[in-house]
Specification:
InterPro entries: BPD_transp_1_N, MetI-like, MetI-like_sf, Opp2B. Helix content is about 80%, strand content about 0%. The longest helix is centred in the last third of the chain and has 39 residues. The C terminus is likely disordered.
């Protein structure tokens, strides 16, 4: 297990390094000078050159990349060009909001997807099954940038039940969480249905019924625990999508999180802030996938035995 963890950490470090370099190069190759954004096009050439030297943008791209990687290795994230503040302070203000939104969306996903998928599997080829699969197809097909405004029109503008945007009101979290978790709930409910149907055909399920166990006992004690292994894998892979989707959702609802901060940084050509935001999103995606693989190997001993035999 320790060797597997070391291998995963090494591959994660390589992926993150590649993401850092790629984002650094892309953001510096995009047209429009951030100095012009900060000073305006009416600023004199001398003022623009002085600011460019002060920010270190006049140095060769390779030198800037080396200094940036060295700063990351020392734990120095730098200062925002637009906000004129340490990036650590900006992240400390925005990350809690994104975590709150992601956890709420994940809770909504699990509460909806697990019962819905289980019901569809138990009531196979009935109206419940067809309704659940129709919801799954609809949830996957509707993008966040369309579902968000639709929910705002329905629950905020027409019914007046929930706030349109912001984070101040107690109910402000509901619509963003629904928007962000809907597609994941649709994918997960379909996976739960498929996994439970596969498990229900196994011999140990028939043996459980033969011992006189009720349908509820068979489902909760035998079918669902064994069906959760592939569900955990899909959930881990989709969590990265959840974090990426938070960017769109936060912009739609004016949610003051990491996603909206990323868009603000891109619009203002704030090089250091864009790089750190994208680095955090990609790092969270890679770490979640790594933890999912390790959790899967810990839950299912057959994977560990297969790796040992292969070695």
């Amino acid at each position: 297990m320790l060797a597997e963890l070391t291998r995963r950490l090494l591959s994660t470090a390589i992926v993150v390094l590649g993401v850092v370099v790629l984002v650094f190069l892309l953001i510096h190759l995009i047209p429009r000078d951030p100095v012009d954004v900060m000073l305006g096009e009416s600023a004199s050439a001398a003022d623009r050159e002085a600011l460019r030297q002060n920010l270190g943008l006049d140095r060769p791209l390779g030198v800037q990349l080396g200094e940036y990687l060295g700063g990351l290795a020392r734990g120095e994230l730098g200062h925002s060009l637009h906000h004129r503040r340490p990036i650590v302070e900006l992240l400390a203000e925005r990350i809690p909001a994104t975590l709150e939104l992601a956890l709420a969306a994940l809770a909504f996903t699990l509460v909806l997807a697990l019962p819905l998928g289980l019901l569809a599997a138990v009531r196979r080829n009935t109206g419940w099954d067809r309704g659940a699969m129709a919801f799954s197809l609809l949830g996957v097909s509707i993008p966040n940038f369309w579902l968000g405004p639709l929910l705002i029109l329905l629950f905020s503008v027409w019914l007046g039940w929930l706030p349109v945007s912001g984070r101040e009101s107690p109910g402000a979290l509901i619509l963003p969480a629904l928007t962000l978790g809907m597609s994941l709930a649709a994918v997960l409910s379909r996976m739960v249905r498929s996994s439970v149907l596969e498990v229900l055909g196994e011999d140990f399920i028939r043996s459980a019924y033969a011992r006189g166990l009720s349908t509820r006992q068979v489902l909760t004690r035998h079918a669902l625990p064994n069906a959760l292994l592939p569900v955990i894998t899909v959930l881990g892979l989709q969590l990265g999508t959840l974090l990426a989707g938070a960017v769109i959702t936060e912009v739609v609802f004016g949610w003051p999180g990491l996603g909206s901060l990323t868009i603000e940084a891109i619009q203002s050509r704030d090089y250091p802030l864009v790089q750190v935001c994208v680095l955090l999103i990609s790092l969270s995606y890679v770490l979640v996938n790594m933890l999912t693989d390790l959790l899967y190997a810990w839950i299912d001993p057959r994977i560990r035995l297969g790796e040992s035999d292969a070695g």
